[in-house]
Amino acid sequence: MITTTINANDQYQDLLALIQGGFTKVDGTTPLFTTDADGLFGAYLLALPAEARQHHTCTACRRFMETFGGLVTIRPDGSTMPAIWDAASAPAYYRDAIAAVEALIRRAKVTGVFLSTEKVWGKPVTGPWTHFAVTPPPGHVFRPTTRTAF
Question: Is residue 142 part of a domain?
Fold first, then answer.
């Protein structure tokens, strides 16, 4: 996705800020969990206006959604909450697309604990293109203590 817009209503930079901002609401001590959420990127694209879909088709963003998009936290009552997406706060242009993604995640089952040693999740920029990515709080960057099998 390039940094320019395809029309005056495209609020892509606001969407990128939502993705990072939504994730920063999850503090570094709250465990993250993987889910069996599937088809997130397809749901995102299908909920965009038809004329915008080709412009938003991107391998880096798809990879981000497949790897990190389905992450959740678990509330004290046992319900799950998407770690990144918040349709209520999404820019109007993307609200339906983010709502579609969020709905899939809310129906998904938890499959495990999420750990990553990466300091940036996703690929924020490639050439002139900007993509979905987050910089997790330091508490969510896994630091393995075992160095060798010995």
Answer: no
Output phi, psi for 2, to 5 deg.
Answer: -90, 165
In a domain, 128, yes or no: yes
> What would the two tokens of residue 140 be?
């969510």
Domain count, the chain: 1
pTM exceeds cut of 0.85: no
Which residue range forms the structural domain that includes residue 38? Answer: 12-136
Strands (DSSP E) along 1-135, which ranges? 33-35, 72-74, 80-82, 110-113, 121-122, 125-126, 129-130, 133-134
Mean pLDDT in order along the chain per 10 residues (150 residues): 47 87 69 95 94 90 94 93 91 94 96 90 89 83 70
Cα→Cα distances 146→31, 72, 140, 149, Å: 20, 27, 18, 7
